[in-house]
Design brief:
alpha+beta; Nuclear Transport Factor 2, Chain: A; 6 strands
C-alpha cells in the first residue's frame, strides 16, 4: 500500500513537516511528482474547478504550470487536527506576456490513514504586480 509519511494523527511538528513537503514538491513544478501525494480518488476544488482522481490532478497541474510560468510558492501552516491541515499561501508567477502576479489563498487538506491527501479545497485570488514588486526570487534551474 502507498504511504506518504508523516501520517495522521498530526502533531504540530508533523503538520509543519507535511506543509513544508507540499511546498517543496509544488516548487518542483513536476506534475507527476506532485500528483503522487494524493490518493487515486482524491477530491479537489481549485478556485472554480472541481475534479476527482490523481489523473485529473496531474492534468490540472500540467495546465497550471503551462500558464503560470516561473511559479514560486510559500506555504504556512494555519491550523491542524488529527487528519486535517489548513494552510495559507502565496505564490508568484507570470503569464506568457510577461505580466507578473502574486496569488494568495487558503487550502484545506484531509488525509487518509496512509498520509496521502484525499481531499483538497483551495480558494485563490490573483493580484497583478510589477516584476520589481516580486518577493520570491530563485534560481530558475529549480
Amino acid at each position: 500500500m502507498e504511504s506518504k509519511p508523516p501520517l495522521p494523527p498530526f502533531t504540530l511538528e508533523t503538520a509543519k513537516t507535511k506543509v513544508q513537503m507540499a511546498e517543496d514538491a509544488w516548487n518542483t513544478r513536476n506534475p507527476e511528482k506532485v500528483s503522487l501525494a494524493y490518493t487515486v480518488d482524491s477530491v479537489w476544488r481549485n478556485r472554480s474547478e472541481f475534479f476527482t482522481g490523481r489523473d485529473k490532478i496531474r492534468e490540472f497541474l500540467v495546465r497550471k504550470w503551462h500558464k503560470e510560468l516561473d511559479y514560486r510558492l510559500k506555504k504556512e501552516l494555519w491550523s491542524f487536527t488529527d487528519d486535517r491541515i489548513s494552510v495559507k499561501f502565496e505564490y508568484e508567477w507570470h503569464d506568457d506576456s510577461g505580466q507578473w502576479y502574486r496569488s494568495y489563498g487558503n487550502e484545506q487538506w484531509e488525509f487518509a490513514e496512509n498520509g496521502l491527501m484525499k481531499r483538497r479545497e483551495a480558494s485563490i485570488n490573483d493580484l497583478p504586480i510589477l516584476e520589481s514588486e516580486r518577493k520570491f526570487r530563485w534560481d530558475r534551474q529549480s
